[in-house]
């Protein structure tokens, strides 16, 4: 059993240990704001001894008279920095933070790349959908490719707005309307052109990723990695396979069978 005298001795020892511990904490808090305030509270849970319930509570305060418990910080001095204040000028972004002008410009360039590719693929769709060409599988493949590139451009536009940048659309070059080639035929010629466009897009994406690294923008780098790079490599492999198959087929009847296989893939 524990007598009241013994309990008083334990309480005094506990109080001394807490005071010593709190003094060390106060001396090490010089790096924190001078307005920082904390309260340490220790409760000894009630114990019954011979029918008597006893409990003890020890509280040490840093000197601030505010009735608080736990670890409480007053408003950080850093928040007063102008970099964290929301601008009031209507032409300025409120959300923009650590978003370099170079990153903003590089994203706009990538948007232009995606739209140019979409424009070329749409021209290919129109060519293969003509009544005197009538390769419906190739027409659908390039139409889907055009829509995918436009979707990529819109993703970049939404990201630009999210980071507080401004979307600036550049001019787009007129694509060719004819894709026939005397040596290779239209199907192989168009597919090789598509492969070149996908490789160019991948190169531009890697350049955009390098800009993000150079500007110390890990969020932009992660966005490019997670949304574009893997998909781009897969697209290059897929179209490279198509180029190899068309080279084996030549310009004859095999192109029609290849076109039908594209329709079957789209239907799956």
From TrEMBL:
Domain Ferritin-like diiron: 97-250
Pfam families, per the entry: Ferritin (PF00210)
Reaction(s) the record says it catalyses: 4 Fe(2+) + O2 + 4 H(+) = 4 Fe(3+) + 2 H2O
Function: Stores iron in a soluble, non-toxic, readily available form. Important for iron homeostasis. Has ferroxidase activity. Iron is taken up in the ferrous form and deposited as ferric hydroxides after oxidation.
Residues that, per the record, bind Fe cation: 114, 149, 152, 198, 232
Species whose genome carries this gene: Daucus carota subsp. sativus
Family annotation (InterPro entries): Ferritin, Ferritin-like, Ferritin-like_diiron, Ferritin-like_SF, Ferritin_CS, Ferritin_DPS_dom
Domain of life of the source: Eukaryota
Transmembrane stretches, start-end: none
Alphabetized UniProt keyword annotations: Chloroplast, Iron, Iron storage, Metal-binding, Oxidoreductase, Plastid, Transit peptide
Name of protein: Ferritin
Signal peptide per UniProt: none
GO MF term list: ferric iron binding; ferrous iron binding; ferroxidase activity
GO BP, one annotated term: iron ion transport
Gene Ontology CC terms, in alphabetical order: chloroplast
Family under the similarity heading: Belongs to the ferritin family.
Subcellular location(s) per record: Plastid, Chloroplast
Subunit field text: Oligomer of 24 subunits. There are two types of subunits: L (light) chain and H (heavy) chain. The major chain can be light or heavy, depending on the species and tissue type. The functional molecule forms a roughly spherical shell with a diameter of 12 nm and contains a central cavity into which the insoluble mineral iron core is deposited.
EC number(s) from the headed UniProt entry: 1.16.3.1
């Amino acid at each position: 059993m524990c007598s009241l005298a013994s309990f008083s001795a334990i309480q005094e020892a506990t109080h001394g240990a807490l005071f010593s511990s709190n003094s060390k904490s106060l001396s090490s808090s010089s790096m924190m704001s001078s307005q920082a305030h904390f309260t340490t509270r220790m409760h000894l849970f009630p114990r019954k001894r011979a029918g008597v319930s006893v409990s003890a509570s020890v509280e040490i305060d840093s000197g601030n008279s505010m009735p608080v418990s736990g670890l409480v910080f007053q408003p950080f001095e850093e928040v007063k920095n102008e970099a964290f204040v929301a601008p009031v000028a209507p032409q300025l972004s409120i959300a923009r933070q650590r978003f370099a002008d170079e990153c903003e410009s590089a994203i706009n360039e990538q948007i232009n790349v995606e739209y140019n590719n979409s424009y070329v693929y749409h021209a290919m769709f129109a060519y293969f959908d003509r009544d005197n060409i009538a390769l419906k599988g190739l027409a659908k493949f390039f139409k889907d490719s055009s829509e995918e590139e436009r979707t990529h451009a819109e993703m970049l536009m939404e990201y630009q707005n999210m980071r507080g940048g401004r979307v600036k659309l550049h001019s787009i070059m007129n694509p060719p309307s004819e894709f026939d080639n005397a040596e290779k035929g239209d199907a192989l010629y168009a597919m090789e052109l598509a492969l070149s466009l996908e490789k160019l897009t991948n190169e531009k994406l890697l350049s955009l990723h390098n800009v993000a690294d150079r500007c110390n923008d890990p969020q932009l780098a992660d966005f490019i990695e997670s949304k574009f790079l893997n998909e781009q490599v897969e697209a290059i492999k897929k179209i490279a396979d198509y180029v190899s198959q068309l080279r084996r087929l030549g310009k004859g009847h095999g192109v029609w069978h290849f076109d039908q296989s594209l329709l079957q893939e789209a239907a799956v």
